[in-house]
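Risk mitigation, structural track. In case the binding assays with nicotinamide-adenine-dinucleotide fail to produce interpretable data, a predicted complex structure has been prepared as a fallback.
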Amino acid sequence: MVAGKVAIVTGAGRGIGRGIALMIAREGAAVVVCDIGASLEGAGTDASPAQEVVDEIKRSGGKAIASTLSIAEPKNADEIVKAALAAFGRVDILVNNAGILRDRIFHRMSWSDWSDVLAVHLNGSFNMSRACAVQFREQNGGAFVHMTSTSALVGNFGQANYMAAKFGIVGLSRGIALDMQRFQVRSNCIAPFAWPEKIAPLTVYLASDRAEGISGQIFGVRNNEIFLFNQPRVVRSIHRSDGWTPENIAQQLKGALGPSFTPLERSTDVFSWDPV
Ligand SMILES: NC(=O)c1ccc[n+]([C@@H]2O[C@H](COP(=O)([O-])OP(=O)(O)OC[C@H]3O[C@@H](n4cnc5c(N)ncnc54)[C@H](O)[C@@H]3O)[C@@H](O)[C@H]2O)c1
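Fallback model:
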C-alpha cells in the first residue's frame, strides 16, 4: 500500500511504533526507525531497540535505517530528515509516535514532569513535522499521522501533563491539515488503546494515497474496533439583547446550558463496552 515511499516513524523501537515500522516496511516503504531507547519515564538511552527493528525489517527484505537522536531537539529533527534523504532520496510519511509518561496527581506534578512530557510529545511532534513539511511542500505531497490519546480526548487521573500534550497534538495536526492542504499534504490523529499491533493497519492506510481526501480527523483504535471522534462544536447557546451581567449569568447559565455540560468522565466511563 505504500510501495516506493519513505517513512519516518518516531518511537519505533518498541510497542506501537515498532508494530507500525514493521508493517509499513512490509507494505513497501523504506523506514527511518527513530528511537532513543529511553525508559517509560524518559530516562537514559539505548541504541538497541531501534537497531533491532532495523535488523528485523532487513531480514524480511525491507529497507531501513536507525536514528537514535532525540526528537525533542529541533536540530535533531532536521538531522533525521537529512538522514532519510541521504539514504532514500525522499520523505513521504511521518508517524509521530514517540512518547514518555510522568503520571502524577496534579498538586504534586513538578515543572519537569510537565515540561519533559511536553518536550517529547508536543515539541517533538512539532519539530519532526516542521522538518518534514519543507520536503512535503517541495514534493507536493505527504502524510502525517500523529498519536494522540483518549486520556486527552476524554480524560484520566494524574495525567494533566500528558493530556495537555496530546490535546496539543490534535491542534497541531488540524493546523497542519489546514495549512498544507494546498500542497496535497494530509494530517490525521489516532488515539490508540494498548494492543500495539492493532494500531499499524489504520496508520499504514492513513499514510497511503488510498486515504486521499482524509485530513484533520481524529480516529481511535481499540483491538478490532476503529472509531471516528467528533471535534468541539457549539452544542447549545444563550443570548440576551441587553447583554450579560455576572448576576443574570448566575440566574440563567446553569439552567440553560447545564443539561449539555460534558460530565467529568474518564476513558473507562465513555468506553464502557468490552473491546470487540
Ligand atoms: N500503549 C497505549 O495503550 C497508548 C494509549 C494511548 C496513546 N498511546 C501513545 O502511543 C504512542 C506509543 O505508545 P507505546 O505504548 O507504544 O510507547 P512505548 O513507551 O512502548 O514506546 C515509546 C518509544 O518512544 C521512545 N522515545 C521516548 N522519547 C523519545 C525521544 N525524545 N526521541 C525519540 N524516541 C523517544 C522510547 O525510547 C520508546 O521506545 C505514544 O505517543 C503514546 O503516548 C499509547
